[in-house]
Amino acid sequence: MLCRSFRVSFGLVIALAVAILCNIYLVFLLWTGGQQSDYHYEFTVPPIISQEAPIKLKDSGLNLNYLKTMLNSSTNNVDKTSSSRSVISMMNKLKRELKSRGAKTVDTLGSSSEWVSPTMLIPSFTPELGDMIKYLQTSPITRASVPRVGTQLKVMITLEGGQKALLKPQWYDRHHRIDGPDVYSGADRHNGEIVGFYLSLLLGMRRTPVAIGRIINLTSDILANADRDLAATFFKNNQSHSCFYGVCRYCKPELSVCGGEGDLIEATVILWLNDVKLKSNRSPWQRTYKKNVRALWETDDDFCIKLQKQNKVFRLEAGKRRLLDLIDASVFDFLISNGDRHHYEIIDGYSEAAVLLLDNGKSFGRPDLDYVDILAPLYQCCVIRKSTFKRLEMLESGPLGTLIEELTLKDSLIGPLLTEEHVQAINRRLGKVMRTIQLCAQVKSWDDVLVPY
Ligand SMILES: Nc1ncnc2c1ncn2[C@@H]1O[C@H](COP(=O)(O)OP(=O)(O)OP(=O)(O)O)[C@@H](O)[C@H]1O
Ligand SMILES: [Mn+2]
């Protein structure tokens, strides 16, 4: 008898211990976004659980299947021909910033070193922007080395005047469709980085470093200036063109980039942020990058509410920007179809630093597909900055795809950056973003959805 009751209580203790461990694991999953990362970044994360009184949260967001059904059944009936006066004046202002004034390199670099603040990489009106674009497009390359950041093929270049920039080469032509199984399949799309930069300006999310297109001579621009490690990855293919594969986690000779006629390649050149210490955080909406393993956010419609309860960094309160920034980022990513924002970066040392929009190359893989789950932060939280909503509303009348083309065509040294199909996809996706916000307003109210800070 005694022995039996001992066995029962022992069993109870074990069951209790297992339950406690399960709970701790659940909290850990919520905190980390649901899975272990494949990435080897050093990053710090805020404390897990706040002991404060539970916060009152508004209703949950929208379920993905419901949203997909609604988006497929509705047409976007915005009059696309009528650019409003506000669009025209916004475009004129942007064009003024993007126009090169012919300043000397030292002046351009001198003023750009003051651009960065904890909430913006480019101040809201930056007349030196055009000169910076020109500088990145034309300044001779004086050094090329292995960047040792990230996992994909890149080159760190130094331009005359001493400014560093990241070079990401072209892998695909504009019409290539990425047929891989996942939203993040394939190599980087260099044009996506450039479009991302211009889109960030149009959206008023100046959190993307300047990215431009440039034709590079692999031999005279890169190999001739390369350090030993980078130079060691160069070879000639059987058409006697220069090729290289660089040094990175996924770099190997079978995945090399080769010059065409005259050893020329297209590349994007991204302004390197000097003297800025970045902090990398795992995105709560990170994918698992594993077949058959779903992240917590993919299985729990209440993910956003739980995230806010568990981690006060993501709480929606005046003065807190992290959640609203991630929602802005999800809209930006959905428009360019970037499903690879596994981490996000902020400027280190500021509690309310903005979420930066770095690394936009895994975009524009499929013009015919809209990966609605990229929008999860928006439809699961069902809130968005009022200013972002107003901006989107204005851009819809552009239409946005045309505005992007207009800005990029003026600057581009590498021709149109997007095929017509991709341009149309941007407009279609913006329609879906607006419809998602409307649906949120139906389950909540406009006042609850549009956040005034
Ligand atoms: N313009 C920049 N200025 C300063 N640091 C940068 C810049 N661009 C990227 N970085 C840093 O380098 C890291 C790697 O860059 P990026 O994400 O573009 O490369 P990636 O190879 O695609 O990385 P991953 O494989 O992790 O997605 C970024 O996480 C960031 O810390
Ligand atoms: Mn990347």
TrEMBL record:
Cofactor(s) this protein requires: Mn(2+)
GO molecular function list: ATP binding; metal ion binding; phosphotransferase activity, alcohol group as acceptor
Major subcellular site: Golgi
Entry's Gene Ontology cellular component terms: Golgi apparatus
Subcellular location: Golgi apparatus
Boundaries of every FAM20 C-terminal domain copy: 234-449
Identification of the protein by name: FAM20 C-terminal domain-containing protein
Organism: Daphnia pulex
